[in-house]
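In the laboratory, one determines a bound structure by crystallizing the protein with its ligand and collecting diffraction data. In a computational setting the workflow is compressed into a single prediction: the sequence and the ligand go in, and a structural description comes out. We illustrate the idea with adenosine monophosphate.
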Amino acid sequence: MNRIFSGVQPTGNLHLGNYLGAIRNWVKLQPDYDCIFCIVDLHAITLPQDPVALKASTREVTAAYIAAGIDPERSIIFNQSAVPGHSELGWLLSCYAPIGWLNRMTQFKEKAGKQRDNAVLGLYAYPVLMAADILLYKATHVPVGEDQKQHLELARDIAGAFNRRYERDVFPLPEPQILGAAARVMSLRDGTKKMSKSDESDYSRINMTDDADTIAKKVQKAKTDAEPLPGTPDGLESRPEAANLLGIYSALSDLPLAEVCRTYEGKLFSAFKRDLSDLAVAKLGPIGRRMKELASDAGAIDAILRRGAERAQAIAGPVLREAQDVIGLLRP
Ligand code: AMP
Ligand code: TRP
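The predicted complex, in C-alpha cell form:
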C-alpha cells in the first residue's frame, strides 16, 4: 500500500489554514493509504520556543489530529523527537544536499529576515530534516498546503541524488498532494499574506479552538473591498480578500467555487459574511470543543504518542539501517 507522511509544527495557534490546507485532507486519505502523521517538534525548535508551551502545543496538535478525525488505531500519530531516526537520517541526507539547493528555499529567506547571519543553522537545514522525515518511512505521498511545495521538491531531489550516488532505488520519490480550494488560506486582514500561526494580529486568523463568538467577530471584521460579489470565479481576479473568503466558504461547504459564486452573485459582503461565519462555526465548533476535551487528559494523549512512536520506530529502524549499509557505515 502507498504510504502517507505529513506533519504540523507544535508552535501554537493551529488555524483554519492548517485545518483546510492539511489536517482535514488527511482524514479522507486514511482508507486508501498507510498513514503516518507527525507532530514535528524538532522543526519547531528552529525558532525560539518556550519549553512549557512546546510540550503543551505538542499535545494540542495531537488532540487536533484526533478531533479532526484521524484515527490513532488506524494511523500512526507520534512526535518527531521520540523517533531518533529523524535526526540521524537528517544528518546522513545533509551529506547529499548541495548548499546551492538550500540557498533557493524561499521560506528560509522569509523566516531569517534581514538578520541572515543570526539565523541558526537548524533553520537553514530544516528542509533536509523534512526530507528525512518523509524518506525515513519511504513515504510515497505527502499531503501539505501549498507553502510546502518547494520543500517537497527538495525532498525529491535529495532522494534522487542519494539513489543516483549508489545506483540503487533506496528511496521512492515522494509525490506532493496539494489538495482542494484552500491549499493556501490567506490572512483575514491582508489577502496577499498567508494565514499563519506567527501573525501578531489575532484577527488575521481563525484558530481551531476559537468559540462561536470569536469566529463571528473575526469574520465580520475580515477585510473586504466595496464591490458586490461576482457571479463567477473569473471575477475574483485582483480581489484577493474576496477570493480568500469565497475559497474558504467553498472548502468548508465542499461546494465548487463556481457554485458559491453563482449563489452570492451581486450580494453584499455583509450577507455573505453572516453565512460564512455560521458555516465556520458549524464546522469548526465541534472540532474545537473535542480538541479541548482531549487535550485536558494529558496522560491519554501521551499514551497515544508513545504507542505511535513504537509503531513508527518499527518502520524507521530498518530503513535507517538500510541507508547506513548502503553508505558503508559499519554496524559492528
Ligand atoms: P505549519 O503551520 O507550518 O506547521 O503547517 C502545517 C501544515 O499546514 C502544512 O501542510 C502547511 O502547508 C499547512 N498550512 C499552513 N498554513 C497554511 C495556510 N495558510 N493555508 C493552507 N495550508 C496551510
Ligand atoms: N515543514 C512543514 C511545515 O512547516 C512541516 C513538516 C515537517 C512536514 N516535516 C514534514 C510536512 C514532512 C510534511 C512532511 O508545515
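The domain at 202-293 is CATH 1.10.240.10 (Tyrosyl-Transfer RNA Synthetase). Keep in mind that any predicted model is a hypothesis to be tested, not a measurement.
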